[in-house]
UniProtKB/TrEMBL annotation:
GO cellular component: plasma membrane; side of membrane
Low complexity bias: start-end ranges: 175-188
Residue numbers spanned by region Disordered: 175-203
PANTHER family associated with the record: COPPER ACQUISITION FACTOR BIM1-LIKE DOMAIN-CONTAINING PROTEIN (PTHR34992:SF2), HYPHAL ANASTAMOSIS-7 PROTEIN (PTHR34992)
Localisation per UniProt entry: Cell membrane
InterPro entries named in the record: BIM1-like, BIM1-like_dom
Name under which the protein is recorded: Copper acquisition factor BIM1-like domain-containing protein
Domain of life: Eukaryota
Length: 203
């Protein structure tokens, strides 16, 4: 009983540390609160209420500031147009991105995809998804209003931690041949699983 209890406490602490937050635009609400869980699609079980705040975003796309707590993670940013619980069917990350480092990642402007035209006053929500090596995903959302007078973050309000880096994951057919023959199945299985997880989440 005692060892199990201690293991449970340790696991809960690890999970809480590994969760992430959207620092900007303002998160819909506290995804660490009772009743919320970042494991829940699409928005961590955080509901839109009368106290939900909307951040003004420029019509061509705005800033995104994340506080990330994993050694590394894949991440996706999706957009849903509408006011109440919109569908997140516009992806703002066209490639599979792999973020390395615990700390702040601030993208000064997430540019909207070609073909998405936004009018002044359009409400929308931003969904950020992080996906770990096992395929387990965490979710957080932020609600915005596109505005012709909104500006992006700049200068000291949008910086990356020095240890934070982002790489585009490239598909590769050379994985199995480039690994030693002692671990071919583990290496190839892991790699193909990661890429298919990312591909599925982008779509
Ligand atoms: C959001 O609403 C659902 C359904 O009413 C509820 O189960 C959930 O606990 C709510 N989330 C929070 C954080 O209160
Ligand atoms: C919205 O902003 C107000 C003022 O900063 C704050 O008191 C409130 O907690 C925010 N609402 C949410 C859901 O975070
Ligand atoms: C996204 O979903 C909304 C609501 O279901 C729908 O009206 C819209 O056409 C969809 N947009 C795209 C790009 O699929
Ligand atoms: C993602 O980055 C981590 C840490 O830099 C690395 O170990 C992992 O292999 C990368 N994943 C892919 C698919 O490149
Ligand atoms: C945007 O959402 C707010 C509530 O957050 C609402 O009062 C307003 O009417 C909405 N605007 C549009 C254009 O739907
Ligand atoms: C932070 O890193 C991302 C990914 O490399 C990059 O797109 C962004 O411009 C960087 N932010 C700043 C403020 O330089
Ligand atoms: C991987 O190999 C398949 C089959 O030969 C080919 O169709 C595909 O284009 C290759 N992908 C890359 C990224 O080279």
């Amino acid at each position: 009983m005692v060892p199990q209890f201690l293991v449970s406490v340790f696991m809960l602490a690890s999970i809480a540390n590994a969760h992430f937050t959207i620092e900007y635009p303002e998160m819909r609400g506290d995804s660490f609160a009772t009743g919320a869980s970042q494991y829940n699609y699409p928005c961590a079980n955080v509901n839109q209420t009368s106290s939900t705040n909307r951040t003004m975003w420029p019509l061509t796309g705005g800033s995104l500031n994340l506080d990330l707590h994993h050694q590394w993670t894949y991440y996706f940013v999706n957009l849903g147009l509408g006011t109440d619980y919109p569908t997140f069917n516009i992806t703002l990350t066209q490639q599979l991105l792999n973020e390395t480092g615990i700390g702040t990642l601030c993208v000064p402007q997430i540019v909207l995809p070609v073909g998405v035209t936004i009018s002044d006053g359009q409400n929308a929500s931003i969904q950020v998804v992080t996906v770990g090596q096992s395929g387990s995903a965490l979710y957080n959302c932020a609600d915005i209003t596109f505005s012709s007078t909104a500006t992006t973050l700049s200068g000291s309000s949008c910086t990356n931690s020095s240890n934070v880096a982002v790489a585009v994951v490239q598909a590769s057919n050379t994985t199995t041949t480039s690994h030693s023959t002692s671990t071919p199945s583990a290496a190839s299985g892991k790699r193909s699983g990661l890429i298919s997880t990312g591909g599925a989440a982008v779509v």
